[in-house]
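Consider the subject:
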Amino acid sequence: MPVGWAGRLLGLGLLGGLQGAVGWWMVSSGLSGSMLDVASYRLATHLGLAFVILGLIAWYVFLLGRDERDLIQARRFSQGGLCRLSNILLGFAFVQILLGALVAGIDAGRTYNDWPLMAGAFLPPYPFELEPLRRNFFENAGLVQFMHRIAGYGLVALGLYIWVQARRSSHIDTRFRFNALIAVLLLQLVIGILTVLYMAPWEIAIVHQVLASVAGRLSWDQEAMMPRGASTQRSEELATMASMIHARRTDSRVGEWLAAIDEKALDQVAQAQIRHIRREFDRATRVPGALEREIAVQSSRAHAIWAEARADDDFSAFAPTLTTLIDLRRQ
């Protein structure tokens, strides 16, 4: 087991136990009185927790299943803006999944089976007929289906916008995954429309739910590929490496070794190599270690800033960073 993963895996097991309790809580709502179906609120809770568990499992698989070299490469080209948009898309998809659970819980998918309108109108008839008003957003079949439809359109629109931004990424793996994500979202939209038109047959409904799971995992994958704070972590790692390299180059033993060498006893190739080592040693001893570290930090952070500036076609956003790098190099 990798170091630091015991708590994560234990938490996953605890969520699995909680899911069992929530499952019984949901089923028990259909075992009392004349009720034949489970309560929609409890169904949404059960399904939402299931997707959280599934998402965590997928996230852990993405993190552990990738070569460290691939993760470093992905973090090198990570874009903070794209990562934030992916998180927004993931949250939006989760809300849409919960709305889907409410639709299933009250059989709202079989109430209005025309598209793109509902009973010939944009809004369904009597969308706010229940009292108090808030009940309509959870129990009114027409309004719940309407919300699920509109959220689906919004999700696809957001996905298309993010896909356009992701196509500008210089990392081929990022572009590939967003291509897969938008393909799944568009297919999910088509399956959702067919579910409405054919009165939610179980075969199409199952495909609809499976695609929701795939879309959620693809969105979550972007968090594994482009984790928040990766740029800061990477800059600290490179700064540490720069400090170690500087310490090696300025080691006093290197100076003693250079002073003890008799260049006249060496051939021309060896003499050229010694002169190169001497120049590097002299240069390294003139540059403070703190400056080398700062150059490494700023150069690393510049990658992410440049990627965002290029994606937004706003190169002026990179100008302050470029000025800082030039000043450091001059020093």
Notes: Residues 8-29+38-227 form one domain. The chain has a mean pLDDT of 78. The chain has two domains: 8-29+38-227, 231-330.
